[in-house]
């Protein structure tokens, strides 16, 4: 089979440019908007509500993005999404009171919903199934690179350059509108999706195949969300926490990219299960590491293991979700996948936080490991007797 460079396929450069700009704005404000609320006098609950409202509106609006694309087409939806994500940033300078910040978080969450659903579904529209794993990996790098670089840098930039500079930089999704227009024109020019065949499922039953990859993803993002939130509170030094988070996010980015070649060669479904075990084992190792001092190496090794599975399963479950539905429903698959990702991240922070408050971090982290392991049977759904995705028709 002829190998192609997915980076140069029509529409892919514009997609990578759009998501890089969009996620740069997201990464800069993720830690700074809550800090801005704290500066305005918000308590811990108010500070946490900034991220909570952002994620809530992300998930709610994700439900409506497929219908918006069908009604308005790609270009206007993409442009509005990038505008909603980037334009509110400078408005933070008008007030550091909690209610205005929460309102801005809701608007930004709506824009982020459009970016996440449209971005991942565009991969399926642009790239043939035989090369989709590598395309998802390239798309994942465009998402992960800004987060790896800018999430830890944002507090430093705010301290040394001022919050105003960060709010100005976080308008960069507006630059992404240029790429969004180019991408939207490419997607709008594609042939229309074929009508369903007579007798095909038209109700919700046709989406049942999306549930296994969604819950697999939820299991591993639950672990990742818990670690991103609580690693600095595990009794380790600031340097150890920073290195652990860099291992988690950096290896996730590399794994999401690197696993694409194997997904194209062997099929995404067939190679999901090892990463469920790796995620569970990594969480158990982290839980063990915080039971006594001097186990920094075990914590970092666990963070690395979770990072690898966190990235690989993002790629693989998205590929399986696209395989589970016909082309006309790829945008629905993208919405369901993103809802699983964001829900898992939120649940991880809430569940582990509640258990750690009631007991301690080791049993809380072991619970997260168990919840991830429970999803293992879903990794084998549809593995036997299913054709390799490369054999499936591209449209």
**Which structural class should the secondary elements be placed in?**
mainly alpha
Distance between the termini: 18 Å
The succession of helices and strands, N to C, reads HHHHHHHHHHHHHH
The gyration radius over C-alpha positions equals 20 Å
Task: Report strand %.
Answer: under 5%
Unreliable stretches: 389-395
Largest β-sheet summary: none
CA-based shape: globular
- Secondary structure: number of strands: 0
Mean pLDDT across every amino acid position: 85
Task: Give a structural overview.
By secondary structure, the protein is an all-alpha fold. The chain is built from 14 helices and no strands. The chain has helices at 12-39, 44-62, 65-72, 74-86, 98-126, 132-161, 163-169, 176-188, 211-230, 238-266, 273-289, 296-324, 330-358, 361-374.
Describe the structure concisely for a colleague.
By secondary structure, the chain is mainly alpha-helical. It has helices at residues 12-39, 44-62, 65-72, 74-86, 98-126, 132-161, 163-169, 176-188, 211-230, 238-266, 273-289, 296-324, 330-358, 361-374.
Primary descriptors:
395 residues; mainly alpha; globular; disordered C terminus
Question: Would you spell out the secondary-structure blueprint of this structure?
Answer:
Elements: H1 12-39, H2 44-62, H3 65-72, H4 74-86, H5 98-126, H6 132-161, H7 163-169, H8 176-188, H9 211-230, H10 238-266, H11 273-289, H12 296-324, H13 330-358, H14 361-374
Helix pairs in contact: 1-2, 1-5, 1-6, 1-7, 1-8, 2-5, 2-13, 3-4, 4-5, 4-8, 5-6, 5-13, 6-7, 6-10, 6-12, 9-11, 9-12, 9-13, 9-14, 10-12, 11-12, 11-14, 12-13, 13-14
